[in-house]
Amino acid sequence: MDEQLYEIRIRPTRPGERIEIALTYPPLVAPGGAVLFSPQPFLGGDLDNNVLRELSRALAGSGLPVLRFNYRSVGGSHPVTPKTQRYEYWKQVEEEQRHETVLEDAREAFDRTKGLFQPHLLCGYSFGAYVALRLAESRAPELPLVLIAPPLSRLDFSALKRRTAPALVVMAGSDEFEPRLTDSPAGLIGSARLTVLEDAGHFFLGHEQALAELVAEFLDEVPELELIA
Fold first, then answer.
1. What pLDDT is stored for residue 6 in this prediction?
2. 8 A C-beta contact, residue 201 and residue 175
3. 50 CA to centre of own chain
4. How many CB atoms lie within 10 A of CB 1?
5. Helices (H), the chain
């Protein structure tokens, strides 16, 4: 972690808590903060994902506290049952498209910002983009939203077309899992801004900083976000 930034991890200990969270923050923080949503754990997604860590550093460096979290059965989060194995459970979620427990974890993460900061931005990467959108639809339709490499061909992102709050969609030009949007992106993402990082693959290896800069540029145009330089 950068010298000017701090990070703490909090495992679930109180009644009703299931997920492990990480909070990244600078010495001086803005009144609002960001919640980040990680990729599918079956594919290795967790709060230490390279994209989420770079975004955390960049956003916290701008003054925003940032909360990341592990879905159930990942890292320090509680398993679904005492004998549940991470990859076994998440493979079933992937194959059967069972997302209600995922959304429960997302709602808990959102609720645990209370006492820490007021959520001002939601940002999801890959599968986490779908989770962020679903959470925004039910809990925070007014918040700015950033969706990175969303699996538009595999999951339902129709709610994005109904949003009126600012939204940014970042696609990888060489995405190994998602075909490049070349036909009619407006038909899939509505009024959201679309940006493509041409040489990036789905994992954005070597492109993390460029990705963070795109998000920072987007935030500069959202006046209600009060940042502390």
1. 96
2. yes
3. 12
4. 11
5. 50-61, 86-96, 100-111, 127-139, 185-189, 208-220
Q: How far apart are CA 153 and CA 148, in angstroms?
A: 14
CATH of domain 6-220: 3.40.50.1820
| pLDDT higher at 56 or 189 | 56
Helix/strand/coil percent split, the chain, to 5: 30, 20, 50
Residues in the chain: 229
Q: What is the pLDDT of residues 77-94, one digit of tens each?
A: 988 777 777 888 888 888
Measure the CA–CA gap between 27 and 7, rounded to whole angstroms.
11
Residue 87 burial (10 A CB sphere; 0-12, 13-18, 19+):
middle
Total-model pTM: 0.92
In order of 63, 167, 172, 200, 211, the CA distances from 208 in angstroms are 19, 19, 11, 9, 5
Residue 225's pLDDT is 61
pLDDT in tens, 111-146: 999 999 999 999 999 999 999 999 999 999 999 999
Strands 6-10 and 21-25: what pairing?
antiparallel
The type of residue at 37 is F
Distance from CA of residue 150 to its chain's centroid? 10
